[in-house]
Design goal:
The complex is a heterodimer of chains A (430) and B (551). Chain A has 430 residues and is of the alpha+beta class. Chain A is 33% helix and 12% strand. Classes of the chains: A alpha+beta (430), B alpha+beta (551).
Amino acid sequence: MAELKIDPFRIDINLMSSVDLQKQLTSYVELLIAFPDETAANSMFWHTDAHSDPISSKIDFFKLLNSNELKVSGNADGSKKIKTTEQDLKNKNIRDQIGKTQHVVTDTGNKYGKPEVSNGIAETRVYKTEKTWKENIPGQTHENANGEWVTTQLPPEEKEHPVVEPTEYQNKETTLQEKFGMKDMSAWFMLWWIEKFNTTHPVIKDQLINLLGEDNEYFVKFSESVGQLKNYDDAKDTSTLPINDLDVSSNLEESVPNVLPGIAKYCTKPETESLAFDLSRKTNKIYRNNMFSMCDNSSKDTVVQKIYPDVSESHGCNLIQDFYHPYRMLLYVDTIREQVQSHLKGLYDVLELLSDRENHMVVGKPKQIIMKVEQFTTSVNLLKNKIRQYTLTDTQQTLSRYGKPTAYNNQPLNAQILAVPGVTEDSLDG
Amino acid sequence: MKHRQFIEQWVNALGLDVQNESKLEQFDDRQYRFSLYLLNQDGAGVKLRKGAINELYVVDDIMDWFHHGYVTVNNPNDVIERAETIYMSDYVEESKKVNIRPYRFRGDGRDLLLLTFEPNLIPETEGAQIPEKLNNMTYTMKFLFTIYATEDVLTDTGKSDKRQKMYFHDYRYQMLLEKNTYYSTAKNTSTKGTKTRKTTNITQASDSDRSKSTGEIIQDILKTSLLESDTNNMFSYHWDFGGTNMLYTSPSNYRAIDDLNYILDRHMASPGYDNQPCLLRLQRFTERWELLPITEYFNRTHKGIMPGAYQTEYFLLAHDSEPENNGIPPERKTLGMDIKTPEINYHFPDISIINDYAFTEMNGSDCQQLLNSVIVHRYDKSSKQFGVDIPEHNIASVRNQFQQLFVNYTFGGIGGHGYTSWLSDTSREKNFNFQVQPSWAGDETSSYIAGRNKTLMSAFLLGNSIEFTSRGETSRRAGVWIAIDRDNNYIDNDYEKKVLGQYFVTRVTHKINPQGEYSNDILGIKPYLYEDLSFDTVDLFAKDTNHTPVG
């Protein structure tokens, strides 16, 4: 089961199309340790775009996600490529680190076997052939002599080549679930799939709702503002706070009237909230000082001014606060929660997440991902753009775990791309 | 076993040579072993007797690597396809009458003609041993043709004189015409030299890794399209693999012949031969494939003072001028005849005689339109540069190379060699008369094809030519040299220096006419003179076309 908080986008970047490729061909594996099933599910959803009937595939996908029957383990679309194995991928990573002319010595003798590697050194061989056009009858080179091709295999040359071996995690097996779905995911992931569902094609939405019914568990009409029901703090306003606290300072949290409703507070910047708080305090200070003299107690025979009435007295008295209102509200919180929970079922956790105002989105973003691009090891960011690091020199290279290393800052100049001999970028500019 | 040999055995098994198993036929006062069979895969076979042949043309042309021609045979009342019985004798005897299965023309290019034609050897002294068959690469003609078209020829004398005309060409040419190839150099990357085997898949290999020398591609195309017996160990040791590598994939609508022509059009000799043009030949009888730079043909004209391997027949012009009996004999324009070597520089006193000939000077319009400077423009895809090559293709430079590459190997009077016969002039040299040609290649050397090499080839083939008809002789073929000289003392002048000497045979036609006479039409070229005749090369019509007079 996944930990609660991670931005699902980090899983959905579609860096590789399946878990086994991501594990063996990229350094982006921390989330595979934490979220293997979520990663596989996302890859499966990406694959639906490439199916012959993406609409039906997406409907099926959401249906299985809703019923927690998504088979992620061994799934060819998101978990494991059917034409390869993780060992094959590791073998290829070693092969790709070696030069074009060196052939790795493998356990099977076949090119695709497991390379013989010990202490970071791979055994390789260089094979050469010599093909010459010779007379087909030895010694006959006269005008009417015929020739033939003679191909000779020269003895192979033994060579050692340093390689970077697979990591410990790459050598471990990844366990995925046979059945997976919304209930196995944390709230943020659920929210992520609800978002995906809400933004998908209308035909998919309509047909899925027809299939599942409007009262299904996850893909229902769900208002994110319902989460504000629990933010009852905004009940403490001018009408419910006592007016005799002329400095508005008896208890800062309790005595300043709340001018922002809960739903507004959810999406208000902290500095705006602080300003509203200060303004409320200052305006109410003036207001209370002005209004305090208007307080009276009509329960006496004569009006007694500037007497702060007891909140338990009749409301017929001027400027008496409805002190019990927040407490009455509090009494119903549990009831409301129970109602909402029974209505939302699995989505209640999502509601809880929505009313959580913490921002986790900037936490723990990887600066670079090292991954395989064709036969090379390349450094990319989350958007899969090649990274250029200004702190590094032009000659510094990535490691070579997945293939031959590439230089971080090797940005060819226009003149080099044009490949016109003798022309340099400077002279073009000049 | 070669395809032709297999067919020969099959024909022998059919027993078509009844009462003439040695295949002897009389041509004027000579005997030849001659046979022509018509057969196909349905088991039908007909021997076309010499007496039934109305016309036979077999053409050997330097511009076609294969032989082709036509034959017209008497076919009274469509007897070829109607006869159900024949007499197994030259005489009509009922006892010799046998039932046969008449021939049926298929009309799909699978009707075959097997031709064998060679002199019959007669022992010098009676009873001496001689080989039953000559089977000699110089004198024996053996061809397996396919019939690609037939025609009923009507005569004024009615259906009893009806004839059947059959057009044929070499079966290998027919195969190339029919075969769509799936060839790509990317699929056959094994190239000559020492190569390190790479781990890169071919899909990731560079264009240069997927390319091959054009000479290898030509071999590949032939090996891909023809029977294994026609190509296995049948390529010349002197095969020129060329100076250009090419990444070539056969387009889907290309037949093998299109592939072959495409590559030949871009093939040029290896740098050792200065990337000059080459000629592809399928040698008759030996059926070897030969791809030789033209220099090699010139190189084989003579070896020092001895005739070279490609010097074949030595012809003498019939006496047509009265010599001065007391004068000093003129310089010999040839190496002299040798009647003791039957394969090199041989001479037959009664056959190797030219009574009359047509000598044709280079065509003036060809000279001015084809033998001029070429400006070649090209685009290099790797450097993204356009290039224009001018000096390499200038006619003065090309003429100089023609002399160096070709004519310096001939027999002549300037330091032992001849002098280029065709003329350049100042207008062409100064680029007032030029052509502009695009090049398929991006580099300077490969672009020789578009300009210089085409000019060299034109100058070689369009030079002064001689054409004559001679009594037939089976050794005559294209792609070799013949010598033409006089044996009497003659008055030497510039004409003799132009006409006498060695000629490169560009076309030979072996023909049998309705009278049963065997003769050859021979066309030869001689692009050199015995020595420099000091022509004026200042253009008479010179004009600076870069300036237009005012007013």
